């Protein structure tokens, strides 16, 4: 027993020491500071964020998209000194980052994740080179979480089926024009089998750690496995809540600008 406790203590201390070596950045706003630890297991995103911080890229940009009980988003380079009527969210650097999905990192409250274009134009789910978001989300009861996961998987499967069907659209059109109902049925069955096979990689199955987090601190489970998570808030969750609560317009842009004054290591 003592030996087991000793080994466990070593593992805990090792994990703690590892966390202490991971870089920390501080986002300064008029609402206060948010300190974020960047994960070493997502090195491409970590290094890119640090590069932009070193270049002072984020200084003066806005949290241009804010949705209470969901997330706050920033990093659009066109948001600097943007007029109040300017639509934001399309700006970026001239590169994307390969996805780095790590199962132990998920969308609990306070995580830092990369924005990206949708699956239709970005099937590899590569990340924006500059835009990021910080999750606020909601706290779920166990029953709510179970129902939410069920709905998420239904939507994911429908979306997957739609993408696959689009790949066969010419074949479907040809068979419909030929009024070949038997071949149409066979193609539909083939599509269903292919969808079922591929959905294994899309299905959201929560770990105990995810269930614990989503029923205590909260988060946004529908984003898990879809967007790269590469850091988490270690100080300033109250600042996150303050920013998330600001008044916004119909495009989710804060009515009064929320400026990222600076980001530093």
Low-confidence segments, ≥5 residues, pLDDT <50?
none
Number of helices, where a helix is a run of at least 4 consecutive DSSP H or I residues: 7
CATH topology of the largest domain: Cyclophilin
Report the portion of residues in β strands.
15-25%
Can you summarize the main beta sheet? 8 strands, antiparallel
- What general outline do the C-alpha atoms trace? globular
SSE string, helices as H and strands as E: HEEHEEEEEEHHHHEHE
Arrangement of strands in the largest sheet = 3-4-8-6-9-2-1-10
Based on CA atoms alone, the radius of gyration comes out at 22 Å
Specify the CATH homologous superfamily of the largest domain: Cyclophilin-like
Describe the structure.
The chain has helices at 2-21, 43-54, 142-167, 169-177, 181-199, 208-214, 237-244, and strands spanning 24-29, 32-38, 63-67, 71-74, 96-97, 111-114, 127-128, 132-135, 229-235, 262-264. The strands form two sheets. Strands 3-4-8-6-9-2-1-10 form an eight-stranded antiparallel sheet. A two-stranded antiparallel ribbon has the order 5-7. It is globular and about 65 Å long. The longest helix has 26 residues, at 142-167. It is α+β, with helices and mostly antiparallel strands. Strand 1 (24-29) and strand 2 (32-38) form a beta hairpin. The model has no long low-confidence stretch (mean pLDDT 94). It has seven helices and ten strands. The protein folds into two domains: 21-138 and 217-264, Cyclophilin (Beta Barrel); 143-199. GO terms for molecular function: peptidyl-prolyl cis-trans isomerase activity. Residues 29-265 form the PPIase cyclophilin-type domain.
